[in-house]
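Ticket #4471: structure export looks truncated?
Reporter: QA, pipeline team
Priority: medium

Steps to reproduce: submit the single chain below to the structure queue and open the exported record.
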Amino acid sequence: MDFENFVLMFCNGDPPSRDRVRNLIPRPTFIACADGGANKSASLGYKPNLVVGDLDSFTNTGREFEDAEIVRIDSQDNTDFEKTLNLLLGRDFREFLVFSFSGGRIDQTLANLQIAYEYSKKCRIVLADNQYLVFPASKDLSLDIFGDVEVSIIPMEDGTTVSTKGLAYGLHGAVLKKGGQGISNRATGDKIEITVHKGGVLVFVKDA
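Actual output as written to the record:
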């Protein structure tokens, strides 16, 4: 999976390993951080180009932030993750690989997953931790897969209807119920295809 031209983004959850970031995006061209995500980025040796948020969790010390653009947005109507995405979309960035979206507070993890799903309707966004890649999708999705990997499909809207190719347990116009119906499927080849007829999903691919 090629993320070469994606914006590398950090939220303020648990940081991944540096190897994980390097393996997915070896030479990031732009690094954006949601508030305290800047400190997570710096802890891995990545100097942010942009830091956005109300800055209540960002510790602005050290030379790693000397060249960063820091944009303070005090509004409490949206999260720092949303503020960062909104600013970047306004600058015509459209592809994002997001780390540190999970861990710690479960409410923030759930919020970040929901935000990623909603924003995926107007940009390409992928979430990553040390084990999974998460692909929000409200339209057709095709993924190149390497090896026999676990795939879970979680519906994000009532009445979500999908069909799949390349999975051990195929779905054919299936209406997914909220819960565990789409958990722990497996890829059978080098590509999976998911057709979203209605609603939307989060596709979790365990690739590490």
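Status: closed, not a bug. The export was complete when the record was re-opened. Leaving a note from the reviewer for reference: The mean pLDDT is 93.
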